[in-house]
């Protein structure tokens, strides 16, 4: 018989539930494999919603631009012309009413967009919590304003009626919290704010809502030691209720962005245009000028569907995800122009999803000769399919793709089109497609088109 210690060792080796214990340092935490679902998802929806949605002017940093150390003149003027003397930022909170907030309607819009995950602002830099946090007395959505749990209601609706993952955005810092300002005055040699506010909130969010993503922000003041980030992440990966599935980003202190964490965001609107060594995400906006809803927005401020699909294609081709932000109004309405953009992306994905979801970067990200052509690939039963995503419909019947090298068995199809696409080998190599004449009302989709290439030589 084996000694008892040996039996225990064998049992541990055979028990798949016994996982690696991650240590509270970046070398250990960065070694954790990224949960597969996130890489396969490719597309998510971001939501910036809070008290800043009441003035709905200039964006989510409204309070800072009004009362910060370097006020923005247009914001100061806006307040002087539209609000009485003595009006405070806290006076906006009762007007954050959310009377038309229907989380099931939101969930339906997000499902229709083709997104695979949603990230809701639970607390932005203003410090207002969109859930009834016991660490934010009278500055949360249950005690003032909507008088409801905005986070919990959306999490429940998404999980009940869709297959999307649910994520929580959370700001480490708060612009004007006295505890944070005192820590900053002490050059972050004290961390009373972290111990009494930031970390208790994060643990509360995880234990109450079990998010699939924790999207951290507000990392530019104080390093990860001040924020106690590594201890939190070690608990998250080792002992939390979402330890096996949760994904986090890279904004955990001044020393972490674009270096540490589950995946990299590097900076807002990050689009490197080439393949990266680590998984990354482009967090971007439908409104070119702001993350939060703006009442004075113009149509020219809205990204076109063509441009948004281009962002998605470029990100996926280079190994990234796109997290696309819309800002709901203070009353809980997602503006129709934002809804239209999301639904149109969903229409495109219903035809071309095979070229996006669960794909991986190919040997080439964009074509070496044709501008506006991006590649993705996917393994299948007979090898690997390559997807040439053409952002503009070819003007000529003969369309040369220089990067793919065909074999005699190569086949080409246009996603959403029933007939095979004829092709020939280019005179100097590459794959020359014969573009069919398709009536406008029979085109498989708008905005971008995908040619699936099977049995190439260079896969």
From TrEMBL:
GO cellular component, one term: lysosome
Site-annotated residues for May be important for catalysis: 283
Pfam families named in the record: Alpha_L_fucos (PF01120), Fucosidase_C (PF16757)
Signal sequence region: 1-19
Keywords, ordered alphabetically: Glycoprotein, Glycosidase, Hydrolase, Signal
SMART domains associated with the record: Alpha_L_fucos
Recorded GO MF terms: alpha-L-fucosidase activity
Keyword Hydrolase: yes
Top-level EC class: hydrolase
Known EC number: 3.2.1.51
InterPro entries in the record: FUC_metazoa-typ (IPR016286), Fucosidase_C (IPR031919), GH (IPR017853), Glyco_hydro_29 (IPR000933), Glyco_hydro_29_CS (IPR018526), Glyco_hydro_29_N (IPR057739), Glyco_hydro_b (IPR013780)
Domain (Alpha-L-fucosidase C-terminal): residue spans on this chain: 365-453
Keyword Transcription: no
Reactions that this protein is recorded to catalyse: a neolactoside IV(2)-alpha-Fuc-nLc4Cer(d18:1(4E)) + H2O = a neolactoside nLc4Cer(d18:1(4E)) + L-fucose; a neolactoside IV(2)-alpha-Fuc-nLc4Cer(d18:0) + H2O = a neolactoside nLc4Cer(d18:0) + L-fucose
GO biological process assignments: fucose metabolic process; glycoside catabolic process
Glycoside hydrolase family 29 N-terminal domain boundaries: 21-353
Domain of life: Eukaryota
Annotated SUPFAM superfamilies: (Trans)glycosidases
General function of this protein: Alpha-L-fucosidase is responsible for hydrolyzing the alpha-1,6-linked fucose joined to the reducing-end N-acetylglucosamine of the carbohydrate moieties of glycoproteins.
Subunit text: Homotetramer.
Family to which the UniProt record says this protein belongs: Belongs to the glycosyl hydrolase 29 family.
Name of the featured protein: alpha-L-fucosidase
Species per Swiss-Prot/TrEMBL record: Littorina saxatilis
């Amino acid at each position: 018989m084996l000694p008892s210690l040996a039996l225990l060792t064998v049992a541990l080796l055979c028990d798949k539930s016994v996982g690696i214990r991650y240590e509270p340092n970046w070398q250990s935490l960065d070694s954790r494999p990224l949960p597969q679902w996130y890489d396969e998802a490719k597309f998510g929806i971001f939501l910036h919603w809070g008290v800043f949605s009441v003035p709905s002017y200039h964006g989510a940093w409204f309070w800072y631009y009004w009362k910060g150390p370097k006020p923005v003149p247009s914001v100061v003027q806006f307040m002087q012309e539209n609000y009485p003397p003595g009006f405070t930022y806290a006076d906006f909170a009762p007007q954050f009413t959310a009377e038309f907030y229907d989380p099931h309607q939101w969930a339906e819009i997000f499902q229709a967009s083709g997104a695979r995950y949603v990230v809701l602002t639970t607390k932005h830099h203003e410090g207002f919590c969109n859930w009834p946090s016991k660490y934010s007395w009278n500055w949360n959505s249950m005690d003032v304003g909507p008088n409801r749990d905005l986070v919990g209601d959306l999490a429940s609706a998404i999980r009940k009626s869709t297959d999307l993952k649910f994520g929580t955005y959370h700001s480490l810092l708060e612009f004007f919290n006295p505890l944070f300002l005192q820590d900053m005055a002490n050059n972050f040699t004290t961390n009373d704010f972290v111990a009494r506010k930031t970390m208790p909130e994060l643990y509360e969010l995880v234990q109450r809502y079990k998010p699939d993503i924790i999207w951290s922000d507000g990392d530019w003041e104080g390093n990860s030691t001040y924020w106690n980030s590594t201890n939190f992440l070690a608990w998250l990966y080792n002992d939390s209720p979402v330890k096996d599935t949760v994904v986090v980003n890279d904004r955990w202190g001044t020393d972490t962005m674009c270096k540490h964490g589950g995946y990299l965001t590097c900076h807002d609107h990050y689009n490197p245009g080439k393949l990266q060594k680590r998984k990354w995400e482009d967090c971007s906006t439908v409104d070119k000028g702001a993350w939060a809803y703006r009442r004075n927005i113009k149509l020219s401020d809205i990204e076109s569907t063509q441009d948004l699909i281009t962002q998605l294609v470029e990100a996926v081709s280079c190994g990234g995800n796109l997290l696309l932000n819309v800002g709901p109004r203070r009353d809980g309405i997602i503006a129709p122009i934002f809804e239209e953009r999301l639904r149109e992306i969903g229409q495109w994905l219903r035809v071309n999803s095979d070229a996006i979801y669960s794909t991986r970067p190919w040997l080439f990200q964009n074509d070496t000769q044709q501008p506006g052509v991006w590649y993705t690939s996917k393994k299948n039963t007979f090898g690997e399919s390559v997807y040439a995503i053409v952002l503009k419909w070819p003007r000529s019947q003969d369309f040369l793709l220089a990067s793919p090298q065909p074999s005699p068995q190569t086949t080409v199809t246009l996603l959403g089109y029933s007939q095979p696409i004829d092709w020939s080998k280019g005179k100097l190599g590459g794959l020359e497609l014969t573009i069919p004449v398709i009536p406008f009302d029979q085109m498989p989709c708008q905005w971008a088109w995908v040619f699936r290439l099977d049995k190439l030589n260079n896969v």
